[in-house]
Design a protein that fits this description.
alpha/beta; Rossmann fold; Arc Repressor Mutant, subunit A; 2 domains; five-stranded parallel β-sheet; four-stranded antiparallel β-sheet; 9 helices; 12 strands; 40% helix; 20% strand; elongated
Length: 246
């Protein structure tokens, strides 16, 4: 019998780490675990898990620092586990490159559903069964290979970033609200999470735009949402598209 997806749990609370590991093991996942940030970072690099569950408050190395050090060379999906429910903490985690978050205390069944959803996205399943490859101006998206290149240069996107870019690029010129972006990218949308779209779009722009401050591809439509423009339209298009966030 084939082993299930490998989940690395980085959590210093022993009882919680063991409970999550035991539950996910019964759900068919293969479990790796670490009780501190340094060990978690090492295992993430050496063992190449399919997904990382990462607490923010960790000894030896914080969860945010783990993401900072891991992200430049890895697009492994990351779900942040945090006891801090504040908006600032959630946004910081997402801006650093996390794909989702859960707030303690959480339901193990909800956590499992979040894991499965993020894993589907990481395999390209969230973007749908349409074209296997898209070329939109200098941006090339290969859904089978789960890869993106800009002017032939490979670009590393997280699964969530890939899903959002793919959803927008499939319909160039169409304006999506934030909830519509979530629905198109992942097949579901729930209020309260839509503001995270802004954070992911900023991250995508940093990776695919010549100048993220003057976006040419993902344009903000003031008061509505976002649209993907195939050509390199530059400052005028960005200003016409409107303001927040740039």
């Amino acid at each position: 019998m084939a082993a299930g997806p490998r989940i690395l749990i980085v959590e210093d609370e022993t009882k919680l780490r063991e409970a999550v590991g035991e539950f996910l093991g019964r759900e068919g996942f293969t479990i790796l675990s670490a009780a501190d940030g340094e060990t978690g970072l090492r295992l993430a690099r050496e063992q190449a898990p399919d997904l990382v569950l990462l607490d923010l408050m960790l000894p030896r190395l914080s969860g945010t620092e783990v993401i900072k050090r891991l992200r430049p060379g890895s697009a492994v999906p990351i779900i942040v586990i945090t006891a801090r429910a504040g908006e600032v903490d959630r946004v910081v985690g997402l801006e650093l490159g996390a794909d989702d978050y859960v707030t303690k205390p959480f339901s193990l069944r909800e956590l499992t559903a979040r894991i499965r959803a993020v894993l589907r996205r990481s395999g390209g399943g969230g973007v749908g069964p349409a074209a296997d490859r898209l070329e939109r101006g200098p941006v090339a998206i290969d859904f089978d290979a789960h890869s993106v290149a800009v002017d032939g240069r490979p670009v590393e996107l997280t699964p969530t970033e890939f899903a959002i870019l793919g959803a927008l690029a499939r319909h160039p010129g169409k304006v999506f609200s934030r909830l519509q972006v979530l629905e198109a990218a992942f097949g579901y949308a729930y209020e309260g999470y839509e503001r995270s779209v802004d954070t992911h779009v900023r991250n995508i722009r940093r990776k695919i735009e010549p100048d993220p401050a003057e976006p040419r591809h993902i344009i903000t439509v003031f008061g509505v949402g976002y649209k993907f423009i195939e050509g390199a339209l530059g400052r005028q298009a960005a200003q016409t598209g409107g303001g927040e966030p740039r």
